[in-house]
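A student in our group prepared the protein record below, which I am reviewing. This is what I was given:
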Amino acid sequence: MVIGFVGFGEANSSIAQGLREEGLSEIVCFDAMQADPRFRDKIAQKADSCGAKQLESSAMVCQAADIVISGTPSSFALGAAEQASQGAHKGLIYIDVSTATPKDKKQMAEILEAKGAPFVDGAMMGTLLKDRHKVPMLLCGSGADAFKQAMDPYHMRLTVVQGEPGTATSIKFIRSITAKGLSCLLIESFQAAQKFGVVDTIQDSFLDSFGPGFQKIMDGYISGAVLHANRREHEMENVVDFLKSEGLPYNMADATREKLKWIDDHHVKDLFPNGVPRDFRSVLDVWEV
């Protein structure tokens, strides 16, 4: 089986690396930025690390592969599907794991299925850097069952949910209201605690209220928000649009989007040239208000 990747950033390269270690050796990929001098070497290194062959277009990836996983920035996902569909063939399974809107996922399904390629709406529901290909993923769409059957031997953690394309993404969006919102609440809480010299007191209070496991959440959610502010801000923009389209309240989701935008606009990630620490205290030590 040949597996292809459209987009080879953090998400897809992590999945590819994990699948390679599971024994899947025939991997092809294309990233729209792979010829850009700013990103060329980094993308090539990621491809080399998992034995992936770089192709010249997403259409060529579809031509060569049995399964294609598309993981592009959400604003480019629909366009990526349109371009990739030029190489789609009957029986190809195409899964989009981006945070594009449910409406966009439905359009992707129409485009791919018109070429005889079953479509899967995939929603990653966990921590990608830690879990890689084993990140819990919800699936729906005409190709969901076939994708799960093909990838189960490689220990992917896949759950098929009922509904049209966009259903899996809708579930992720609803979860993100809390998950992304909590990261921003923690940041504001601890920055205020830092200013008043009560970080230990607030930390102990949280652990007392929510249990010792909350330490991992505090560390991961704060560092993750700094590291991925740009991507998550765009995701929350889509979450707000989704809630608006359904006539639902979106105040908290919009506040989260604004906070993530502030973090991105102020280039907080650049305060950590050696990488954002994975414990919140190290983040606070550098990022003082």
The radius of gyration is 20 Å. Residues 141 and 164 are 6 Å apart (CA to CA). Strands lie at 3-6, 27-30, 53-54, 67-70, 93-96, 119-124, 137-140, 158-160.
